[in-house]
Amino acid sequence: MTNTAGYHWPGPGGVGAHLTPGLYERLIDAELAEALAASDLRAVSGKVDSADAPHVLATHLAARIERALQAAKGRERLELANRLLALLPDGSALQERPEVDPKKEPSPDQLLSLWPAGFDQAPGRPEIPLADVALLTNGPQDPGLAAELVKEMGSADRIDLLGSFIKWTGVRTLLPGLEPLARRGVPIRVLTTTYIGATDRKALDALAGLGAQVRVNYFSASTKLHAKAWIFHRNSGYSTAYIGSSNLSRSAMTDGVEWNVRVSQVATPHVLAKFAATFETYWSSPDYQPYDPATDSARLDEALRDARGLPGPGTTSTVTALTVRPYPHQQLMLEDLEAEREGGRHANLLVAATGTGKTVVAALDYARLIERLNGDGRRVLPRLLFVAHRKEILQQALRTYRDVLKDGSFGEMFVDGQRPARGDHVFASVQSLQDLCVFEPERFDVVVIDEFHHAHAASYRKVLSHFRPKELLGLTATPERGDGVSVADVFFGGRIASELRLWDALEADLLVPFHYFGIADGTDLRRLSFRRGQYDQGELSRLYLADRARAAKIVENTRQYVADVGRMKALGFCVTVEHAHFMADYFTASGIPALALDGGSSRAEREAGLAALRSGEVKALFTVDLFNEGLDIPDIDTVIMARPTQSATIFLQQLGRGLRRTPTKAVLTVLDFVGHQHADFRFDVKFRALTGLGRRKLRTAVEAGFPFLPAGCHIELDRVTQDEVLKNLTQTVKLRAAQLVADIRVHAGDVRPYTLRSYLHDADRSLADIYAGNPTATVRGRKIPRTWQALAGLALGGGKEIGEASVVELDLLRRIRAFTHVNDRPRIAAYRRILAALALAETPAEAEEVLAGLGEKAAYAPMLYFSLWPTGDPGEMAVKLWEAVRSGVFRAELEQVLEVREDALRTVARPLPGRLAGVPVLSHGRYTREELLAGFGVGTQDEEKPGNVREGVKYVRHLGVDILLVTLRKSEADYSPTTLYRDYALTPNLFHWESQSTTGENSPTGQRYITHESRGTDVVLFVRETKVGEIGTEPYTCLGRARYVRHSGSKPMAIEWELDRAMPAMLLAASKLVS
Questions:
Q1: What region holds the Helicase C-terminal domain (predicted)?
Q2: Which of these three, 863, 878, 903, is where a domain ends?
Q3: Residue 220: pLDDT over 90
């Protein structure tokens, strides 16, 4: 089956390219001449104008040269390039040649079109050559946009149109081109929105009547589609596209001040590839609903009226007709919750900024619980109690649950005198629940408590201590109390089930974009006391109170960066109460009215201060600890960070106070005043929370000025701050072993034994801090493996000295990093079981018996073995694993790593379906190449060793399974337009994959891909974002079994695979071309 979606083309003029009817601009070389002679198609050709010949010849050669360079490897590429350069004369030799009459110069022939014999209605050509790029501005020298589009239509094989709105007047001007398309049966796809209500239903009806497939995004309030573009697909390889400012309206088509760029597959192939891939992603998205005038006109009319703010003819439904789907960040939270429950944790806390849809997550989570309970077709609703402290929150929550469940009668209110009749699904205020005799402790299966930071209050504690639900879910934006105590520590064992990734919410357009400015304040904090991630607050406050120059600098920069200080609503965060009052007084004295509020302020003082900020009477509030919901002022548009903050949680809480969307707020301005920090202060924690970047990429981002941020966001560091941050990041990313030894000693204190898990939690570090970089280190003149036991042994003493370890043990310890990615419980349990069983064996023969007696866990032994010895002899597996375990050093280290990985599990791994159910590789598990191949029997039931497999595809014959290994970012560069659009997710269940360049659709491999279902073979897809990760070679995530849907092209083939199981949310975000 050939794809009709249009996201892959043959290259124009490729060697042996298939000739199809259509327009061309291709030089006729010997190969093409031979192909034309053998073709039944009638060719139309012409001479290339001598003035255009250099450009045409260069374009032709460039394509051929690029293909030759792609086929070559390494040094061959350089040698080929040098041979080509040697053939070119230098400039002076060219200048010395005598001039030749252009009319007497030989001119190359160019194929212009191919048509079936007897075809006498060849379409006209656009004014702009098919291979060229042009900018159209509706100027007097430019061809008219509408006229060009009509001409482009005449030779197109397929057309895609993307427009934020479509007007009848625009469609009307294009009817001379659209009507012939309908008669020819040319596929047309149209994507548009109800944005500002500008689309005309008549226009969509007309397009649908002409045979176009139309899809509409009805979410006008949140749509981010403002693009306007056309793409004209041509099977000849000469596709073209128009991208610019023109919507499909009369003025945009004719006389508006519009800029549109015409691009071509020949001159800008990667631009067209991105266009086509992005369009396909939009087209596959459930956000765009098919539009049929016969059934959807009323819905469209209503959506357009709503977008224009006009009243409808009837009453509004109490339950939305649209399916509530999670945003990517919400999907990630749902996956985290599922993973926590799989691990036996049934009291969970979600942390996310106000306005990011925590209640939606709770409702979707409840719907998932219903699905789990109703697997046998029954309709059982778990009894639910939703608790909040305000009636408005309860009303909104009830509406959300009804929308998610599509049940307008779901739930009852218990607030302000309203009492539930049945009491099965209750939305109650905490005040109404003070008489707890109304409900027995086991009454509710699920209890959800909104604004969980109130849980310290007596009224909330009373509720929490009374009920004993099967599932407890807390929701909050601010887990930290003013005294630094977190509700996570008090009620959830110090564990947050899921915490919002800020950049995900920004990508979803749920929060206002931020402009962050890091400003050097000139202070020197290097000599202050700093312990466990915090400065001594007294010392820091005294330093700031004595530094009026710093306060003046904060005022000066506030005036500089804030657009209008007179209309500013700022919130400033200070070290102590005294510091907050100092800053408020200084701002007021400087002509910017300000107040200080803190936990000791009376209720009346707080309310008066907040009212003054809302009204504009004061322009700034300075505070220390007011993070709770009482300080909820959506209009805050400026955050002043007048104190250093290392904690990511506190930093995001501070930022979150200003990220609420309002109609009048376009951006949040963040002013962060940075001094010369203590050597142990870490900038990476804050900037990773702000950007979502890993440690390796964070340093590059700082150097480059943060080029990749969510739309509308901006981070700017002044020169001094940038130098300070870069110096700090260099120390953090390349943390020396001696620094780690000292850090372990500080955080361990008197705790013995002190585990790797405890240290990473206490120090806010990751496994990468221990295992990244060189696997050996030198400390105090001694060379040691960079492992936990070695570092902790030097820091704390005791235990076996690493220096006493054998050469074999040292080599094994260096391979520990091969297990730092393990992310599923069955594998962790299996590895532990293998280690424990082998530890009991006394001889190699017993080791063989032990492995044979492990049952289904024995299948994991090759994965463990080849992770340590990628090209090892499978006949030695039992003996070598036994030797590795005997000494105890390797086993102890691996146990520490597995404990950390188990604690960090956020994945629900599932067995592969069907014939592959017995394979120890699970969907959504992460695996090294050696590990996953061993799991499929490579190395044991297949002669090739896992460590010798270098290609991205492997057919495992004894299982009848094709393993596809995909790296999304082929280039190590942050942005590589030539390689980004080959492999990507279209939807959570659809993945576009490009085969190896030698695989044709009629080859044995290509046919196996296409017909795998009828042949009884399987395809399993593995994906990773980059080749190199934080610790070393990046592992792959198993997306599970895939089913062939369609393909296009040949050598390479572009195949669309349908996954049995939706992709993990985090990998989906990395795999999609659009947010």
A1: 557-714
A2: 903
A3: no
In angstroms, the first-to-last Cα distance of the chain is: 30
Q: How far apart (Å, rounded) are the C-alpha atoms in residues 617 and 634? A: 17
pLDDT score recorded for residue 56? 85
Structure tokens given for 215:
């899809």
Contact yes or no for 530/524 (Cβ under 8 A)? no
In tens, the pLDDT along 572-606 reads 999 999 999 999 999 999 999 999 998 778 888 88
Evaluate whether 730 touches 736 at the Cβ level (below 8 Å). no
Q: Beta partners for 472?
A: 347, 447
Domain closes at, from 436, 470, 500: 500
Average pLDDT over residues 240-263: 78
Q: Give the H/E segment covering residue 449.
A: strand 446-449
CA dihedral 978, 979, 980, 981 (to 10 degrees): 80
H/E stretch holding 45: strand 42-47
Identify the pLDDT of residue 978.
53
**pLDDT score recorded for residue 995:** 94
Domain match, 493 and 514 both: no
Domain ranges, residue 470: 328-500
DSSP element (H, E) containing 653: helix 648-656
The model's pLDDT over 51-73, given as tens digits with 9 standing for 90+, comes to 888 888 888 888 888 888 887 87
Angle among Cα 1018, 1024, 1030 to the nearest 5 degrees reads 150
Contacts of 904 (CB under 8 A, 6+ apart): 823
The pLDDT of 417-444, averaged and rounded, is: 92
Distance CA 25, CA 12 (A): 9
Considering the domain architecture, whether residues 423 and 520 belong to the same structural domain is answered as no
The SS3 assignment for 516 reads: strand
Strand partners, 413: 427
- Long-range pairs for 745-751 at CB < 8 Å and ≥24 separation? 745/795, 745/796, 746/531, 746/532, 747/532, 748/792, 748/795, 748/796
Task: Tell me if 366 sits within 8 A of 397, measured CB to CB.
Answer: no
Distance CA 1067, CA 985 (A): 9
Question: Quick one: 558 and 653 in the same domain?
Answer: yes
Of 72-86, 101-115, 645-659, 711-725, the range with the lowest mean pLDDT is 101-115
| Tens-digit pLDDT profile for residues 1012-1038 | 999 999 999 999 999 998 899 999 999
Q: Rounded CA gap, 115 and 19, in Å?
A: 10
The mean predicted confidence, pLDDT, of the chain is 88
26: nearest Cα among 114, 138, 104: 114
Domain annotation covers residue 820: yes
Q: What is the side-by-side order of every strand in the sheet holding 213-217? A: 134-136, 260-264, 240-244, 228-233, 158-163, 188-193, 213-217, 288-290
Looking at the structure of the chain, the number of domains it has is 5
Query: Which pLDDT value is given to residue 1050?
Result: 87
- Whether residue 798 is found in the same domain as residue 693: no
Q: Do 973 and 1063 reside in the same domain of the chain?
A: yes
CATH number at residue 602: 3.40.50.300
Say yes or no to pLDDT of 43 above 80: yes
